Amino acid sequence: MNSTPGGEQIQADADDHGHVAVDVTTLDAELIEGPSVATPDVAEYALWLGDDSLILAQQLGAWISRAPELEEDVALGNVALDLIGHARSLLHYAGTASNRTEDDLAYWRTEPDFRSLHIVEQPNGDFAHTIARQFVVAHYLFELYSRLRASADATLAAIAAKAVKEVDYHRDHSNQWVLRLAHGTDESRRRMVTGLSDLWPYIEEVFRDDPLIDRLEGVAVRPSSLRPAFDAAIAPVLAEAELEIPRGFVASGGGRTGKHSEHLAFLLAEMQVLTRAHPGASW
């Protein structure tokens, strides 16, 4: 499973852990009915998207009881739940290629096996940092799922058709907060500017193409093809907020090939600790 010290024990644990049932919620029938089994390449692509949603949902969950308003506690919690739903569907489909469940993939992989983008791994920071991350990711996901609805892969198309309706709300939610923070107090504006500046170096990786996409012509969405629509969608929001697009260095990225930021390991340790401490448990 990995080549790090203790990797053999991790592999043994993963093989023997049994099924971990975290709830009794089932996936939507239209996403799992029929004999659909992902090819290795399609499974890898589903991991890309599923891991992005899973990691971002874990990040947003940390705001519950800590958001600046009670209503925002509920809003961010609902966004996180939507993303968990997307992650479950995508990881379920990815797991069909290797006979693993979505729980296996969420809780029993190690850091190099994840395929999340660096931008979703960035710490929450203050509320403005979180909104800056949501603003970028929600707009990207909306453009992605809008296009993925036309995928030649029926399962990916069905997942996208459901997800795009939810990320449209996520997009509107982040737009409103960008405007509110930018036109609020001097301090809220300063924090919004800082949040965008800190997150912007990670945007290039979002739209970077990979050889996998060449092998999935008609199935996957080419990331670089989404950039024009993304730029066009965020431009009026930034203009109304009187915010400029940050300039600066470009982060190297590497999440799609298992090269992650320093933050992911800590996040996974927290996310996976209960399952690994009580393998086979159900509640």
TrEMBL record:
<dbReference type="InterPro" id="IPR012347">
    <property type="entry name" value="Ferritin-like"/>
</dbReference>
<dbReference type="Pfam" id="PF05138">
    <property type="entry name" value="PaaA_PaaC"/>
</dbReference>
<dbReference type="InterPro" id="IPR052703">
    <property type="entry name" value="Aromatic_CoA_ox/epox"/>
</dbReference>
<dbReference type="GO" id="GO:0005829">
    <property type="term" value="C:cytosol"/>
</dbReference>
<dbReference type="InterPro" id="IPR011882">
    <property type="entry name" value="PaaC"/>
</dbReference>
<dbReference type="InterPro" id="IPR007814">
    <property type="entry name" value="PaaA_PaaC"/>
</dbReference>
<dbReference type="InterPro" id="IPR009078">
    <property type="entry name" value="Ferritin-like_SF"/>
</dbReference>
<dbReference type="GO" id="GO:0010124">
    <property type="term" value="P:phenylacetate catabolic process"/>
</dbReference>
<protein>
    <submittedName>
        <fullName>Phenylacetate-CoA oxygenase subunit PaaI</fullName>
    </submittedName>
</protein>
